[in-house]
Amino acid sequence: MLGLAIILAFSFARCASAIKDPAPDWPWFGEPLNNLTVSVGREAIFTCIVENLGPYKVAWLRVDTQTILTIASHVITKNHRIAVTHSGHRTWSLHIKDTRETDRGWYMCQVNTDPMSSNTGFLEVVVPPDILDDPTSTDMVVREGSNVTLRCAATGTPEPTVTWRREAGGTIILSSWHEVASIEGPEMEIIRVTRLHMGPYLCIASNGVPPTVSKRIVLVVHFPPMIRIENQLVGAYEGQTIVLECHGEAYPKPITYWTKPTNDTIVNDNNYRVETVTMGYKSIMRLTVNSVRAQDFGAFKCAATNSLGETDGKIKIYRITAPSTTRRPNARRDSKKLWKGDSPHEKEIAGKEEDAISVDEEIDEEPINFHSSTASSIFHRHFTNLESLAMTILFRVALRLFS
Ligand SMILES: *[C@@H]1O[C@H](CO)[C@@H](O)[C@H](O)[C@H]1NC(C)=O
Ligand SMILES: *[C@@H]1O[C@H](CO)[C@@H](O)[C@H](O)[C@H]1NC(C)=O
Ligand SMILES: *[C@@H]1O[C@H](CO)[C@@H](O)[C@H](O)[C@H]1NC(C)=O
């Protein structure tokens, strides 16, 4: 009975190890060698299971270089990173410590039968992505309208893919009708760069081996100042407080100032207050006249200057009659109708008002058009936001048309 079992076991051994005409007492492999994938620097362990080793010995070899690494429990190679362990006679493990990329390749577990019998396994050494400093772009400063290419040189095994994104999210506007959330590839080219491209970008390198890495590259777009004014004509009466506003776009950040109708530059004092609110390349220049005086009727100028140019805008103040106390209730009702709520009349009335403004002398006699400065500034802000949105959309459309 026992004899039969042994015979069966050996026939099985023949099949499993695929050894040609083995002697009945030959060893055989318990299971195929597994392929290994390790991150560079980690330890790789191949395990070879040999049944019925008997008097034979297990050796580990590196196939590519035909070198013997270990024989039985002895390390033959001078490579200090190689070790061999065994558990009884059956399980033999090759340890490759602190793996390097050069360790990638085929390894063989060999038994010195004649002919020899062996099993091979592949060691894959993967390397997390890295971004090379030197060939990768640093922060860039370009003129609006020029072409720009940002580069990101990534290494790693397998070869990483590079993705470009805006750090703040949002889309990247490409030349034609293209607006994308991200761009793949080691280079990001922008044809005819605009101020809308300004900001920090991330190039992200990933290859499935953690950690993913990224580099931040800031694109700075230089352009000369531009000034936009919503209300170029402002009616005011003596003693009234008014706020004048100019919208500027410029980069680098411009020097801004206001001038009086006498062409003198305005400095902050009891009657004039100048402030500029800057957000990125946009700024709002605001001049508050606490109490309009006779010398204020005329053209105020807001001006912006940077290294690329200079520009200014004019706002004309014209005289209107101060509201009398008896007329006040009337005027108030007008204000309500004009400025509160979102009635469709609003635009119509605003349009009418502009028509009226173009005839200065008549307005002087028509105090009906009076509205309080508070109402005016509410309207102003409202109108400004709408128009600035419209301008942005127009600008984008224009960009696409001309690129
Ligand atoms: C090991 O990888 C090779 C190709 O690299 C493949 O042919 C072989 O089947 C793999 N062995 C195992 C046990 O997965
Ligand atoms: C930018 O690139 C476009 C398309 O490749 C080309 O036609 C244009 O001349 C380039 N402009 C500059 C300033 O190099
Ligand atoms: C202010 O300067 C403009 C030209 O910049 C000139 O036409 C105007 O007469 C000047 N006004 C005064 C009061 O000097």
UniProtKB/TrEMBL annotation:
Residue stretches making up the Ig-like domain: 27-119, 129-214, 224-321
Q: Which GO terms describe its cellular component?
A: neuron projection; plasma membrane
Question: Record's InterPro entries?
Answer: Ig-like_dom (IPR007110), Ig-like_dom_sf (IPR036179), Ig-like_fold (IPR013783), Ig_I-set (IPR013098), Ig_sub (IPR003599), Ig_sub2 (IPR003598), Neural/epithelial_adhesion (IPR051170)
Pfam families, alphabetically?
I-set, Ig_3
This protein's name: Lachesin isoform X1
Q: What is the lineage of its organism?
A: Eukaryota, Metazoa, Ecdysozoa, Arthropoda, Hexapoda
Give the organism, scientific name.
Answer: Cephus cinctus
**Chief location:** membrane
Annotated region Disordered: where?
A: 326-352
Give the keywords, sorted. Answer: Cell membrane, Disulfide bond, Glycoprotein, Immunoglobulin domain, Membrane, Repeat, Signal
Q: What does UniProt give as the signal peptide span?
A: 1-18
